[in-house]
Amino acid sequence: MNRPGTPHDTATAAAPDAPWTLRDYALIADGERGALIDPRGGIAWLCAPAWHDGAVFNGLLGGPGRYRLRPADRWNVWGGYYEDGTLIRVSRWVTAHGIVSCREALAVPADPGRVVLLRQVRAVRGTAVVDVDLDVRADYGESPMTRLRQEGGTWRAHTGSLRVRLTGAADARPGPDGGLHTRLRLPEGGSHDLVLELATETAEPRHAPLDPHDPHDPHALWVATERWWKQAVPDCSDTAAPRDTRMAYAVLNGLTSAAGGMVAAATTSLPERADTGRDYDYRYAWVRDQCYAGIAVATHGPHPLLERAVRFVADRILEDGSRLRPAYTVDGGPLPPERGLPFVGYPGGSDRTGNHAGRQFQLDVFGEALQLFAAAARHDVLDTRAARAAALAARAVADRWTEPDAGLWELESRWWTHSRLCCVVGLRALARELDTPASADWSRLADRILEATRSRCRHPDGHWQRAADDTGPEAALLLPLARGAVPPTDPSFSLTRAQVAQRLARDGYVYRFRHGDEPLGDAEGAFLLCGFTMALAAHVQGRHTEAARWFERTRSACGPTGLFAEEYDVAQRQLRGNLPQGFVHALLLECSARFGTGPDAFPPVGW
Q1: Which phi and psi (to 5°) does residue 220 adopt?
Q2: Helices 528-540 and 582-594 meet at what angle, rounded to 10?
Q3: What phi, psi does 181 have (nearest 5°)?
Q4: Which pTM value belongs to this model?
Q5: Rounded to 5°, angle at Cα 194 from 138 and 199
Q6: What tens digit of pLDDT does each residue of 318-367 get?
Q7: Strand partners, 258
Q8: Which of 372, 450, 547, 553 could disulfide-link 539, Cβ–Cβ 3.0 to 4.6 Å?
Q9: Rounded CA separation 293/279 (Å)
Q10: Residues 274-306: b if buried by 16+ CB within 10 A, e if exposed
């Protein structure tokens, strides 16, 4: 094994391509895993069979494994787009002699034990000459392809515990690096399909819905995938930004497993700030993020994503009670410990997997869960099991609300204001939506928490401060305030929003909090979640023009692909952190739904 900090080097692995800026990557995903595509047609990152498993294409972090499909004419300009309301990506290259496109998707409905990656090359104008290179290396590059063989027009191999099957490349030949290589030539208007399947040894054979006799028929797989996306993403014409809202729905669907868990992002170790050590593995389901997504969807309507979020969160609470972990794998397992990988890492970042956050106590997670359950009850999708989980979460708040916790930002344990206000909102929402004997107790508990928090965490000047022992401003406070911790007319709400605008906002973007005396933007990028919460807060207080400005400014902070990361470097206009960040897309969806014209555009708040 190579020592950490150096590029992976084996006897046969080809050198990885140079990385791109994060804004240039596109995502295709099926809920069980996701692939990042670079502008030159390379699959830069894909874990298989599940999000938290080892990557088979590791180029994003400087490791081996590749699946390239690119014009032979390297003198070209790249572009591309998503088909509206889907994660079907169309990459496009204008060469010196024509135009080439490649339609790409992970086939859906997905199988947890099987990846099916579809790629369809088309000669849009002129003759297309396209190079294809495949080298699947499971277990973060440690397992090269073995038993490589051709059976008819299909190539088969093994890598780690995965079986490999490639159709559509009958003329491919093995190369000295252990991979397959071929060149496609298409006349103008012609197209050619490639289907790559990666499956565990125990996975059942896949049967395409439209042709059970040929489970790898590209046409059947494309038709099924198109149909799935059409059913998964609503029209959204009643929202403030319909196309971007459909994109947000598509991203959330793509990040959410059939088991219900939604990963925070598709990647690991992408730096929030170069060489600071702030780069983490986000390929896990944070309960808070799952709640944000479910609450956002509920703002628009009872979409299936709401039911999946409720099911996942309820299962975790029923299993762990007051010892609920902040994050799990998408199938509900514990997070693995952090460890390094033998890669150089994305420039400015590291090469780690696993996450220590799974061991923290974060009180606000219970408050967000209560808000999620209340939103489900409002849409009449809260079943008996989830109602039991809601009661258990309320009991956990009653037992633990006085304890210091790590909070939303997973910092040192303190008496964070945001955590308590989230619980106030959740308890009140649940009491309002569920008519049970316990409802009055939940309301009284909310009042007691609010009063104690007000006495300890309201600044003498009248605004809410970060923590009992920290008088600084905190942008995260705007979310529980916008959802009803205090009435919209309460002076503390307006004063807090003014503090954030004056001390944590620059050029229309919002930052989380101050890092000592460092200027905003030096310590970290603008936090896009906070920009959308600022828009929500202004909207709740009736300042609709101001809300629209915050909303539009924040939703401009994406790359050409329309994906948002966690942070945005305003000076360099670059994305920072793991990609795509699910909770940012969720808050965009919530803002767009609230600011729109649909029946749930103005859901009730706590007062």
Answers
A1: -65, -40
A2: 20
A3: -140, 140
A4: 0.94
A5: 35
A6: 999 999 999 999 999 999 999 999 899 999 888 888 888 878 999 999 99
A7: none
A8: 547
A9: 23
A10: eeeebbbbbbbbbbbbbbbbbbbbbbbebbebb
